[in-house]
Amino acid sequence: MKLDDLPMARDGDDRLERISPALAPAASARSARDAAGEAAWRELHTAAAARYRAAGRFAWHFARGKLGRDPVFRSLVERGDLGHRARVVDIGCGQGLLASLLQACANLAGSGRWPLAWPLPPAAATYHGIELMPRDVQRARAAAAGPAHSLAPTFECVDMRRAALPPCELVVILDVLHYVDHAAQSALLTRVRDALLQGRPEMPRRLLLRVGDAASARGFAVSQWVDRAVTLVRGHRVPPTWGRPLAAWVALLQELGFVVHSVPMSQGTPFANVLLVADVVGLA
Length: 284
Ligand SMILES: C[S@@+](CC[C@H](N)C(=O)[O-])C[C@H]1O[C@@H](n2cnc3c(N)ncnc32)[C@H](O)[C@@H]1O
Known about the structure:
By secondary structure, this protein is an alpha/beta fold. The protein contains 9 helices and 7 strands; from the N terminus they run ααααβαβαββαβααββ. Helix 2 (24-50) runs antiparallel to helix 3 (57-69) and helix 2 (24-50) crosses helix 5 (97-110). The longest helix is centred in the N-terminal third of the chain and has 27 residues, at 24-50. It is globular and about 55 Å long. It starts with 11 loop residues before the first helix and ends with a strand. 37% of the residues are buried. Residues 66, 92-94, 97, 130-133, 136, 159-161, 174-176, 179-180 line the site of S-adenosylmethionine.
């Protein structure tokens, strides 16, 4: 029998544990932890998507697909990137998936079933979504009007280049900045930094920015192609074209005073997406 034929073998560590029985308790604790995380994510996914039943079949299927297949949502929860008790501004929020996920997190935590192995639940204090497309805003509002939405999210239909940004501790911008030109990207990020600087200094103040890495020719080309197709279907007039290589995104954020680290964020997809976790630290 080969090691790979043994049950539960997934990586090198598991094999070690099977060879050495002394490591078995650690292995079973880890698999219990994984199972709890898996079950919790399934529950969050189902609950967040279910809110869109009120917004129509398209909105519900879209929510199920995107929350399930795009690695960023689960990762934000499991990594604890969404902070705790932050006032959240979600720029280019689409149909407000993040608001629904935050509410599902609040409900799961409130029921006492938040996995012990996960970081603190985000328990966002407020959520404000900014979105250009009226139909997306309608869907977001319909989902928010459903039962048990203690977060009471607000959505504004406005161009992010002109939107006022309230003081906050967390700004989320997922796959949006390439819709506007480089000058507009820089101007918006400057205003984002200023909004975060007005946030509560005793809390972490953070921008979560997902971008495509234009230096990764193949993955970036795939995401541009998909984006253009989706953009056309959704009735956007301007195709999303203004990318930058990852190093240029990081340099831009650093020039603005952010402390940045990057996390690959396209697992299981053909894209070259990267999540930039950018913190405002020690700026006056
Ligand atoms: C790829 S989608 C991402 C949606 C959402 N962030 C998510 O991850 O589910 C990009 C979104 O940005 C919005 N958007 C594009 N240009 C915008 C602008 N100038 N102002 C506000 N929203 C914009 C689009 O309408 C679209 O909903």
